[in-house]
């Protein structure tokens, strides 16, 4: 079975889309008045967390699902926008179960 070529440009696009997804999520929180605009640390965590989720999703989409790299990058961008919230919820549930 030939290996999939996950080239640098596909990863770069997935990373960029993840950062944009995190930025959009952060701007939605700001416009809703749910967070303080001066909270830079949590903003950076949102951006880099979204980028990480986006790259992981891209790699899974290209390697396991055998999707075209551009389709994987698009899916990674969407996952970067909504994936950090899902990841945080999953971690919270895991910690709650462990503390019981």
Textual characterization of the structure:
The structure is a single chain. This protein has about 100 residues and is an all-alpha fold. It has one domain (about 10-100). About 80% of the residues lie in helices and about 0% in strands. The protein has 3 helices and no strands. The chain has helices spanning about 10-30, 40-65, 70-100. The longest helix has about 30 residues, at about 70-100.
Largest sheet: none
Distance between the termini: 45 Å
Secondary structure: helix percent: over 70%
Radius of gyration: 15 Å
Secondary structure category: mainly alpha
Secondary structure tally, helices:
3
Strand content: under 5%
Mean pLDDT: 80
Query: Which term fits the overall shape?
Result: flat
How many structurally independent domains? 1
List low-confidence stretches. Answer: none
- How many individual β-strands? 0
**Helix and strand pattern:** HHH
Summary tags:
0% strand; mainly alpha; flat; 100 residues; 79% helix
Which helices and strands, and how do they pair?
Layout: H1 8-31, H2 40-63, H3 69-99
Helix pairs in contact: 1-2, 1-3, 2-3
Question: Could you provide a short overview of the structure?
Answer:
With about 100 residues, the protein is an all-alpha fold. It has helices at about 10-30, 40-65, 70-100.
